Amino acid sequence: MAMTDSDWPQMMRINPLLNWTYSDVWSFLRSLSLPYCSLYDTGYTSIGSMEDTHPNPSLRYVTDSGLTEYRPAYALSDFHLERSGRRRPNPVPCEVVPKPNVN
């Protein structure tokens, strides 16, 4: 909850979603059968670009037949790992050149 800025008519703003947890969001979506991107059902927990988005390794498991599969995003138990499927870009290699002595 927060009051509006001083240059706006004064009223209390209430944004309940700001306090929702990862679990709260999934409980809401699933309890109302709301549509969402199907990638979340295949192990993706954070969706970005095609280059840096992968299934979350925290949801990976091996089936009885030896296949690697992924649980759905709502099965993630440690919500701090939500972005574990996002690969960080490789740093740009650079060469350090010593500064010449100027006397």
Automatic annotation (TrEMBL):
What EC number(s) does its UniProt record assign? 2.7.7.2
Keywords of the record, alphabetical order, are: ATP-binding, FAD, Flavoprotein, FMN, Nucleotide-binding, Nucleotidyltransferase, Transferase
**What is the uppermost EC class here?**
transferase
Phosphoadenosine phosphosulphate reductase domain residues:
3-55
Q: Where is this region: Disordered?
A: 84-103
Keyword Transmembrane tagged? no
Q: Could you tell me which pathway this protein works in?
A: Cofactor biosynthesis; FAD biosynthesis; FAD from FMN: step 1/1
Can you state which reaction this protein catalyses? FMN + ATP + H(+) = FAD + diphosphate
Recorded GO molecular functions are: ATP binding; FMN adenylyltransferase activity
Q: Name one GO biological process term.
A: FAD biosynthetic process
Gene3D superfamilies per UniProt: HUPs
The record's section on InterPro entries has: PAPS_reduct_dom, Rossmann-like_a/b/a_fold
The protein depicted here goes by the name FAD synthase
Upper lineage ranks? Eukaryota, Metazoa, Spiralia, Lophotrochozoa, Platyhelminthes
